[in-house]
Design a protein that fits this description.
It contains 14 helices and 39 strands. By secondary structure, it is an alpha+beta fold. α5 packs parallel to α6.
Length: 681
């Protein structure tokens, strides 16, 4: 087929006919006419993206390379005519940043003809939204197994990359996604995870990611020539990238485009590109706040196993349940309750038994006590990346939790990148990347199986979020970035800009179980390296600024007693929202986000900053019209600073409405949290 195409091209050249003269291009325009994608078959299959008249992606390649059949995008394919169609609907979430999501886009399916007039086996589906684009490869076939993908040719060639700033973490690293975000010039990036965020010199912001990652390798970005990012696929242990069927559909390749930084946060592109809920009635998926026997382990006060001061005892669990019930929290997470934590559990996940409790922890009694108090036990499964061992037990473990009315489970996979252990059908041990096709499929299998038992999953050391929470609403949260625990023992701990970086990078993919709410910010003293590098008020603001439908009240109960007035905000703040609006912000500098309570009238605001003090002037135009609110303001004191005075704060109240403007001083690595409580109509 390739020889035929080359022969035709040679004949045209000999006869004086330019191949460029026969090139064809098609255009797809967003509903608001501000975003345009142009696809051409000149010099291979390529696409460009224009935003408000400015070309932001230019002449970027398309294509996929197979092991046993011709590559797509290299065979002289010619574009067929298309008929774009515009769609506009609104769908509702069981939980989320907003209850109702507008899903408006222009769609076109591009088919291709080969020079010998046979039809290519691949098509590309495009969806162009007002806030970005998504495209995916769709192979036409009969379902034949054994189709091997060895590479992807897709590129994103950014214009003006020489002057652009980028925020990124490295791909294919030992610490998976748990690296500190770096800010650099575009030329300094190499291989990076997605979401990958860019700010052009003209202020346009771009985020490259993927959506609906199912039965495929995770994509990372590999910079070739400066400004050209090639889609690269995480390999399997056998060296292939993807082994699939001949009727596969790839994940969506996504490019969010916004005129400013907060436009990226306000985008619903990723979740919109996922399929609708396939679990049916999911009223059993319950957002809320939980406490846990967790932070004490990271501080070294307790241990996970019996080779120390065991944290997960029946008595201690009951104390945490009492604390949760007293303050209206929904759950209590108990880590270290099951056999396997003694010894070097990090290196040997085969130690774990997911149905056998330690003798000092009565699982049934604790679950029963929690129900009596109106609280639920949150389950925990640490696998240490020993996936086959876990899969042999997981259904029995879910069934046990189901019998005890446990409705949420936190899972963990703390093995280094590339060290997820599986045993194949021949009994041979293989090691996989967490974000390889094998890892992608394992995580989704666990979520699907959990749904059978009406259990929601909060995955730590996960595959990255690609919006599958829409399709599987029981995938309620995940980690997938450097969380709070690094402040207890990390070297270094999370710096002041870390949480602001997350808002414009990791959080663009979906919810994160960051575990905010630490009140003892320096357990080893203010001069210790391992401490929380924020003010107390920033810890409050994180409950609004970093979204998750389940939020941990992460510190020890006795630490909250020292600042009971500030703790009231954590008691009050919900975790499920009807509206969310990013109001102001710049990547890595600061962000202010407002959210309205689901099934309620109150609004909340969270504002956080990096190491720099800031004064934010925030119009309250997001508030509902014709009503007054009592603004309960929790903010840094005038002398507050994260280094030497992190506990100074002010709590004040004032009546406001949507015509008012709020001025907030944020201390270095500080924050402000506001509850706008509706005054009776």
């Amino acid at each position: 087929m390739l020889r035929v195409g080359l022969l035709i091209a040679m004949l045209m050249l000999l006869s004086g006919i330019s191949t460029a003269c026969l090139a064809k291009s098609v255009r797809i325009v967003s509903p608001d006419k501000n975003l345009t994608v142009q696809i051409t078959d000149q010099d291979g299959l390529r696409y460009s993206v224009t935003f408000n008249g400015v070309t932001v992606i230019r002449d970027a390649r398309l294509g996929i390379v197979f092991r046993d059949r011709p590559a797509f995008g290299l065979q002289g394919e010619r574009l067929n005519d298309i008929t774009p169609k515009t769609f506009n609907d609104t769908w509702s979430q069981r939980w989320g940043e907003r209850q109702h999501v507008i899903n408006q886009f222009t769609e076109a399916l591009t088919g291709f003809t080969l020079p010998d007039d046979s039809f290519a086996a691949l098509q590309v589906r495009w969806r162009v939204y007002n806030d970005g684009i998504g495209f995916r490869y769709e192979m036409l076939g009969s379902g034949e197994q054994g189709i091997a993908i060895t590479d992807e040719l897709t590129e994103s060639t950014l214009t003006q990359s020489e002057q652009a700033q980028a925020w990124w973490i490295p791909a294919l690293g030992w610490n998976r996604y748990e690296f500190l975000y770096q800010q650099s010039g575009f030329a300094d990036i190499d291989r990076v995870h997605t979401p990958f965020t860019v700010r052009r010199q003209d202020g346009i912001h771009i985020s490259i990611h993927e959506a609906a990652l199912v039965d495929f390798a995770s994509m990372y970005l590999d910079q070739r020539r400066s400004g050209t990012l090639k889609a690269a696929l995480v390999p399997r242990s056998d060296g292939l990238k993807v082994l699939t069927r001949d009727d596969f559909i790839s994940p969506w390749r996504t490019i969010q485009v916004a005129p400013n930084a907060v436009g990226l946060i306000n985008s619903d592109l990723i979740i919109n590109l996922n399929d609708a809920n396939m679990l049916g009635n999911v009223d059993w998926v319950e957002p809320g706040k939980y406490v846990g026997i967790w932070w004490g382990m990271h501080l070294g006060k307790f241990s996970w196993g019996n080779d120390g001061v065991h944290g997960a005892t029946t008595e201690r669990a009951r104390q945490y349940i009492d604390f949760a019930a007293q303050h209206g929290f929904d759950g209590v997470l108990v880590e270290g309750w099951n056999h396997g934590w003694d010894g070097d559990w990090f290196k040997d996940g085969d130690l774990f038994n997911f149905t056998k409790a330690y003798t000092d922890f009565d699982l049934a009694a604790v679950s029963s006590y929690a129900r009596e108090k109106g609280v639920r036990l949150v389950g925990h499964h640490e696998t240490s990346g020993s996936v086959t061992h876990y899969e042999q037990q997981v259904e029995r473990a879910y069934a046990l939790y189901d019998s005890l009315d446990v409705r949420q489970v936190k899972t963990g996979y703390v093995a280094d990148g590339g060290q997820m252990k599986r045993v194949d059908e021949q009994g041979i041990t293989r090691y996989e990347w967490h974000d390889s096709q094998y890892g992608v499929n394992h995580y989704l299998r666990s979520v699907e199986l959990a749904a059978k038992y009406k259990i929601s999953i909060n995955t730590h050391e996960p595959i990255k979020d690609t919006g599958l929470r829409r399709t599987y609403p029981n995938w309620i949260s995940r980690e997938g970035a450097r969380g709070q625990e690094f402040n207890a023992w990390g070297s270094p701990p999370n710096p002041p800009e870390h949480e602001v970086n997350l808002a414009f990078t990791r959080m663009l993919s979906g919810p994160m179980d960051f575990t905010p709410g630490i009140f003892n910010l320096a357990a080893n003293g203010l001069d210790a390296e391992n401490r929380v590098q924020t003010t107390l008020m920033k810890q409050l603001a994180l409950y609004v600024a970093l979204y998750s439908p389940i939020q941990m009240v992460a510190d020890l109960p006795e630490h909250y007693a020292q600042y009971q007035d500030a703790f009231q905000f954590i008691v009050d703040v919900p975790t499920d929202w009807s509206h969310s609006i990013a109001l102001q912000g710049e990547v890595g500098d600061f962000v202010a986000i407002a959210r309205k309570q689901r099934d309620g009238e109150d609004w909340y605001l969270g504002a956080i900053t990096d190491e720099n003090e800031r004064v934010l002037t925030i119009p309250l135009s997001f508030l509902d019209a014709n009503v007054r609110y009592q603004a309960q303001i929790y903010k840094d004191g005038e002398e507050a600073t994260w280094q030497t005075n992190p506990y100074q704060y002010v709590i004040q109240s004032t009546a406001v409405d949507k015509e008012d403007v709020l001025t907030l001083r944020l201390a270095p690595s500080g924050g402000a949290a506001v509850r706008f409580a509706l005054i009776k109509r």
